[in-house]
C-alpha cells in the first residue's frame, strides 16, 4: 500500500473515502471535521443532533457525498471519551475506519491524523500509530483459500495535514509505522502458515529471504555443528522428527564501534505435538504457532535493519518439530545442554525451554550484552494472565523497565511476573542438575527460572507470549489468528537502546 503526506483540506481531496473523527459528547464539530461538515452542508452536525453520530469508540458513519465534494464518501469515526484517548486507540480507530471503507469498495483512503493536537498526542507519534493501525487492520491471510475474497484491496493511504512544517516529521513517522506494521504482518503470515508450509528448513529459508532483502548477516547451524557444540537440549527435542533442526542466527551491525549487542532469542517449534507426553487432540492444530517467538525475531531483525538503527542486534532462532517417534526423547531421559548443565526430562511437552537453553547459551558465547527471549512457553501463563497480557520475567529490573516501555508504545500489553529465589527449589532434580518441569503450581514462573539458569549473569528478560501470540476472535487491528506479538516490542527496545 502506498502511503503519502498531502498538505491541504481533506474535504477537497479526490478519494474513495475520507476519514474524519469525533470525540464522544462533542455536539459541534471543529477542525477538519468541522470543515468537512461545512463542505457537506451541515450533514455531520445534523447526524450528531439526531443521535446517529455519538462519537463512541470505533463507531463508524459513512456519508456519501453524491458529487457535492471531491471525496466519494466521508467517514466519521468515533474516538470515544477524550480523557480516555490513547495512542493505542489511534491504532484502533484507524483500523476500524480502513476496514469499513474497504468493505464499501474503497481503493484509496484519505485521513487526518487522529489525536494530533486536540487529542493531546505528539503528531509524529500519532501518525505512526495511524499507519500501524491501518496496515495491521487490513491484514488478511488467504494464501490457501481458492475462493476470491468478497472485498478488494486498499491501494493507497493519504494523510492530509494543513501545517507544512509538520510534513517532515509525519513522513518519518509514517515510514517507521509502515516498516513495523509490515514486519508484524509478515510475522502473522509465518505463524498462520500450516506446519507443512513452515518446517524448520522453510523457516531458515524465510530468514535467508529477510537477510538478503535487508542486508543482514545470516548463519544457520546444522545438526553436525550442534553436536560439536554439545547442544543436547535442541538435539534431544529434534530426535523424534524427520525434519532436521536448525539454529538460525541473524546479525545487524548498526554500531560496529560498540561492544553493546542486543540478543533476541525466539522459540521456533514449528509443530508441537507434545512428543511422547502427547497433547490432547482438541485444538492441537494451533500448535503450528509454537514458533511465534522465532518468527517475531526474524521479522524484527528485518525492521531493525530497514530502520538502520545504530545498535548491534543478534537474532537467534532454535527451530525443530516436537513429535513422538521410536527415536524420540522420553520422560526420564537426561540431556546435557551446551552450557554443560544436565537436565532431567519430566515432560517432553516442556520442550521449548530445552531448545531455548542452548540458544541462550550460544547467544552468551557470541558475547551479547543484553538478552530478551520470546516464546509461546507455557499454558500456565495463559491461565495466569488470560488472553490480554504477555508475561515478563527478568534477572535485571533496568532492562525489564525498558522492555515494558517498549511494549506499551507498541500497544503490546505486558505484565511483570515474580522470580523469587524460592521458585528455584521447584526445578531441582534428584538425578540431574535441574529438571524441565516444576509441577503445575507456578508453571510459568518455574519455566522462567529454568531459562534463567542459561541466561546466567547476562541482563535478561523472558517474554512468555503464550497468552498473546494467537487470538480466538477479531479485534480492531488484529483478525482471528496470529497477532504478531512481540515484533513492535523488539523494534522499540532496539530503538531505545540505540538512542541511549
Number of domains: 2
CATH class label of the largest domain: Alpha Beta
Measured distance between first and last alpha carbons: 33 Å
Strand content: 15-25%
CATH superfamily of the largest domain: Zn peptidases
Shape: elongated
- How many separate helices? 14
Query: What proportion of the residues is helical, as a percent range?
Result: 25-40%
What is the assembly state of the chains in this entry? single chain
Total DSSP E strands = 20
CATH fold description of the largest domain: Aminopeptidase
Radius of gyration: 24 Å
Decide which structural class fits the backbone. alpha/beta
Largest sheet: 9 strands, mixed
Unreliable spans are none
Mean pLDDT level: 97
Architecture (CATH level 2) name of the largest domain:
3-Layer(aba) Sandwich
Describe this structure in words.
The chain is of the alpha/beta class and 500 residues long. It has two domains: 2-160, 3-Layer(aba) Sandwich (Leucine Aminopeptidase, subunit E, domain 1), CATH 3.40.220; 181-499, Zn peptidases (Aminopeptidase, 3-Layer(aba) Sandwich), CATH 3.40.630.10. 36% of the residues lie in helices and 20% in strands. It has 14 helices and 20 strands. It has helices spanning 31-39, 43-49, 87-103, 123-137, 167-192, 200-214, 223-229, 232-238, 292-306, 352-365, 379-385, 397-410, 443-455, 487-499, and strands spanning 2-7, 17-22, 60-64, 73-78, 108-111, 156-161, 217-221, 246-253, 261-266, 268-272, 312-322, 334-336, 342-344, 370-375, 390-394, 414-416, 434-435, 460-464, 470-471, 481-482. The strands form four sheets. Strands 7, 8, 9, 10, 11, 14, 15, 16 and 18 form a nine-stranded mixed β-sheet that branches. The relative contact order is 0.11.
